[in-house]
């Protein structure tokens, strides 16, 4: 049996199928493989029919003929492979999930680049804004360090002043105690000195009077032995009442106390 040269199927699985022969390459094609209706072809059309591959070759060679060309599909369900034809990998169908995945990947890359650029821009702006603040903080830190040093100096001076004040207070208390003691001693001495004082009243007062002579005469009159050398001082005191007509007092101080007997 003569082996048929098929251009559409690897083997002639359906030998009863009708076919058509190409005018150029003489290959046979099933009507079903070429999606053709065998009832629509007349014998004249079958004799001049050319397969799509030969039609493309004619177009590439710039040949011009009147062979009718139809846009036919070479795929059908349960299509038989052509002889010596390369194995064509089945294309994956595009689904909504795959499109969404591709779009998400693209958006992710775009957003990633955008966020990276935005991050760099924000970082640069923050650095530019923070630079004056950093300089001010450095200046403030220097000022605070200087103020802290001055504060420590003032603190040391204050501590030294407190120590001196405490020492002065102790010394002042000691001086107060000494003053009180001295005042008491002075009072005692004054009291002792006043024991030897003689106050004479109602002595007529005259100009150019000699108080020493008057005191000696009075001592002689009252019978008291009194030496002029024993009299330390004598004077007249001011009047307590200036309008009084009485003479001023004449206090006298002697070395030792004398017993005076009035006659």
From TrEMBL:
Q: Which InterPro entries match?
A: Znf_FYVE_PHD, Znf_PHD, Znf_PHD-finger, Znf_RING/FYVE/PHD
Annotated region (Disordered) at 240-263
Entry's CDD domains? Answer: PHD_SF (cd15489)
**GO molecular function terms here?**
zinc ion binding
Keywords carried by this UniProt record: Coiled coil, Metal-binding, Zinc, Zinc-finger
Domain spans labelled PHD-type: 5-57
The protein's matches in SMART domains, at most eight in alphabetical order, are given as: PHD (SM00249)
Compositional bias per record (Basic and acidic residues), positions renumbered to this chain: 254-263
Pfam families recorded for this chain? PHD (PF00628)
Q: What is this protein called?
A: PHD-type domain-containing protein
């Amino acid at each position: 049996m003569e082996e048929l040269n098929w251009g559409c199927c690897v083997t002639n699985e359906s030998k009863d199928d009708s076919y058509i022969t190409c005018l150029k390459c003489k290959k046979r094609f099933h009507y079903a493989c070429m999606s053709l209706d065998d009832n629509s072809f007349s014998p004249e059309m079958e004799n001049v029919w050319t397969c799509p591959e030969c039609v493309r070759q004619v177009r590439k060679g710039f040949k011009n003929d009147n062979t009718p060309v139809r846009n036919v599909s070479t795929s059908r369900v349960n299509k038989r492979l052509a002889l010596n034809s390369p194995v064509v990998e089945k294309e994956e169908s595009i689904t909504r999930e795959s499109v969404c995945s591709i779009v998400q990947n693209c958006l992710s890359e775009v957003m990633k680049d955008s966020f990276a650029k935005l991050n760099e821009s924000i970082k640069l702006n923050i650095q530019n804004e923070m630079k004056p603040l950093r300089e001010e903080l450095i200046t403030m830190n220097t000022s605070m360090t200087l103020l802290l040093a001055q504060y420590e100096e003032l603190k040391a001076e204050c501590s030294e002043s407190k120590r001196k004040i405490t020492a002065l207070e102790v010394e002042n208390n000691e001086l107060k105690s000494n003053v009180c003691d001295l005042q008491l001693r002075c009072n005692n001495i004054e009291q002792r000195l006043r024991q030897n004082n003689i106050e004479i009243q109602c002595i007529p007062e005259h100009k150019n009077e000699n108080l020493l002579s008057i005191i000696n005469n009075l001592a002689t009159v009252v019978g008291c032995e009194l030496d002029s050398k024993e009299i330390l001082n004598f004077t007249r005191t001011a009047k307590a009442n200036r309008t009084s007509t009485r003479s001023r007092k004449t206090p006298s101080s002697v070395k030792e106390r004398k017993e005076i007997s009035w006659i």
